[in-house]
């Protein structure tokens, strides 16, 4: 190893420890920085390894403090990694075989090299090859760690640059139709990556595409159109209709890589906070009969979100998510509400039968005359079936008219108002999210008095 190579290695080592040796650190800060630096992978000069351990970083710090930058240069004998008994091209091939399949044993690699006639049988020694591979970090554990656990942190440059969307199976509510039964409530969330501000979050009884789209639509109505939507690769995010909505709105749709959930750390952290702060208190109110329906749950959750989350200082940027979002001066891209509604309409293709009717979601509709046997495209809002648009060849025809009215499945699923059960004896009579809700109501009253726009009604709250 020549002097130029040794200096390049010293520069790399100093770059690693510079945050540790160039300023005075608070107690405990050094340990946190060491762990953070050791978390990442690096292109280490003249080495095939990618990671640096905490112990190695401590050794670099000690050398630097005792001998300065020169002490970070490797010794002239650092070329000891070069095997004196294995030819370089043979060792390179062995490394490639191990990288290709980390589960290959040293014996298997030797067998491959012998069968492929890179070496003569018996020429390689297992202990020698094993030693050389270990020195270069070519072990199963190290290779799998590099492949699976090395990530780069990401944060959007400004508000609405990236919204992360996800669904959590949060808690159980009393079943709206089956007395004594419970039903899962799913929390659908869209979170602004730059500020961690939740642009909209809502509980639903189903984890389906229309619920996801409804949440996104409400978020856009309040906070504009994002540049990118970063979502899971599950079925509801991979629907053709969701992709079409994003395309029409000019939103780049990006999915998490399969089996790589680590890119969704911000969402997971938010869900952990929901589990820790909201869920236990919500179950307490469910037992008291104060939360019995989705309407009740979403009412308390909106207050909790505004007071307990949006007004809580975030550890990463030392600001409240609401402040960080609103103080960003990046322009917000808006769309008129009527145009947005058109974009979110569901689309179905139907063939008009001999009675000049089509069937949609269990209900028969009559279309304008002259379409018998023709295929038409229907556009509709699943939450408001009063208007069914009929399209053919990119031209809108007369809207379909109900021919036979049948109750929609979701129309039957109305919340049953249950009598408030007798409250169980409480030790303190205090509940966190109930108190949060009261504080939220007080804040809204003060904003009204000061002439500010009502957050809940003005499209700026969750």
Q: Summary?
A:
This protein is an alpha+beta fold. It is built from 16 helices and 12 strands. Strands 3-2-1-4-5 form a 5-stranded mixed β-sheet, sandwiched between helices. A 4-stranded antiparallel β-sheet has the order 6-9-10-11, with no helix packed on it.
Could you please say which CATH topology of the largest domain applies here? Answer: Nucleotidyltransferase, domain 5
- Report the average pLDDT across residues: 82
Task: Please give the share of residues in helix.
Answer: 40-55%
Contiguous runs where pLDDT drops below 50 for at least 5 residues: 78-83, 452-462
Assign the structural class, choosing from mainly alpha, mainly beta, alpha/beta, alpha+beta, or little secondary structure.
Answer: alpha+beta
CATH superfamily of the largest domain: Ribonuclease H-like superfamily/Ribonuclease H
Main beta-sheet strand count, sense and barrel state? 5 strands, mixed
CATH architectural label of the largest domain: 2-Layer Sandwich
Query: How many helices does DSSP assign?
Result: 16
CATH class of the largest domain: Alpha Beta
Q: Any idea what the radius of gyration is?
A: 31 Å
Give the count of structural domains. Answer: 4
Strand order of the largest sheet: 3-2-1-4-5
Strand content: 15-25%
Indicate the overall shape. extended
Give the distance, in angstroms, between the N- and C-terminal Cα atoms. 61 Å
Count of beta strands: 12
Name the helix and strand elements from N-terminus to C-terminus, one letter apiece.
Answer: HHHHHHHEEEHEHEHHHHEEEEEEEHHH
């Amino acid at each position: 190893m020549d002097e130029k190579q040794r200096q390049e290695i010293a520069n790399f080592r100093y770059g690693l420890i510079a945050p540790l040796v160039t300023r005075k650190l608070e107690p405990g800060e050094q340990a946190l920085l060491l762990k953070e630096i050791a978390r990442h992978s690096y292109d280490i000069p003249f080495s095939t390894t990618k990671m640096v351990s905490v112990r190695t970083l401590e050794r670099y710090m000690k050398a630097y403090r005792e001998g300065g930058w020169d002490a970070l240069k490797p010794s002239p004998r650092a070329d000891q990694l070069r095997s004196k008994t294995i030819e370089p091209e043979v060792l390179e091939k062995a490394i490639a075989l191990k990288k290709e399949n980390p589960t290959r044993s040293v014996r298997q690699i030797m067998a491959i090299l012998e069968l492929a006639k890179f070496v003569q049988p018996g020429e390689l020694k297992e202990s020698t090859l094993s030693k050389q591979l270990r020195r270069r970090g070519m072990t199963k554990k190290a290779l799998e760690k590099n492949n699976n656990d090395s990530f780069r942190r990401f944060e959007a440059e400004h508000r609405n640059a990236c919204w992360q969307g996800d669904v959590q199976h949060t808690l159980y509510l009393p079943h709206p139709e089956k007395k004594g039964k419970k039903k899962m409530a799913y929390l659908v969330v869209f979170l602004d990556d730059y500020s961690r501000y939740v642009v909209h979050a809502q509980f639903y009884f189903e984890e389906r595409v229309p619920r996801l789209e409804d949440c996104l639509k409400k978020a856009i109505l309040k906070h504009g159109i994002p540049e990118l939507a970063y979502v899971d690769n599950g079925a509801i995010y991979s629907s053709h209709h969701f992709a079409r909505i994003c395309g029409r709105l000019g939103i780049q749709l990006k999915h998490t890589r399969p089996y790589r959930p680590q890119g969704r750390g911000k969402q997971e952290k938010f869900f952990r906070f929901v589990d820790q702060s909201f869920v236990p208190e919500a179950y307490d109110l469910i037992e008291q009969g104060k939360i019995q329906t989705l309407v009740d749950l979403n009412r308390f959750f909106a207050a909790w979100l505004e007071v307990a989350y949006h007004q809580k200082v975030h550890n990463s940027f030392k600001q409240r998510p609401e402040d960080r979002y609103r103080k960003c001066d990046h322009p917000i891209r808006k769309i008129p509400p009527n145009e947005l509604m058109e974009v979110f309409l569901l689309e179905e293709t139907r063939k008009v039968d001999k009675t000049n009717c089509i069937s949609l979601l269990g209900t028969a509709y009559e279309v304008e005359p002259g379409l018998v046997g023709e295929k038409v495209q229907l556009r509709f809002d699943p939450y408001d079936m009063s208007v069914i648009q009929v399209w053919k060849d990119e031209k809108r025809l007369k809207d379909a008219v109900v021919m036979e009215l049948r109750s929609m499945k979701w129309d039957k699923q109305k919340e049953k108002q249950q009598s408030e059960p007798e409250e169980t004896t409480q030790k303190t009579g205090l509940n966190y999210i109930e108190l949060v809700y009261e504080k939220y109501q007080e804040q809204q009253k003060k904003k009204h008095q000061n002439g500010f726009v009502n957050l809940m009604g003005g499209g700026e709250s969750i």
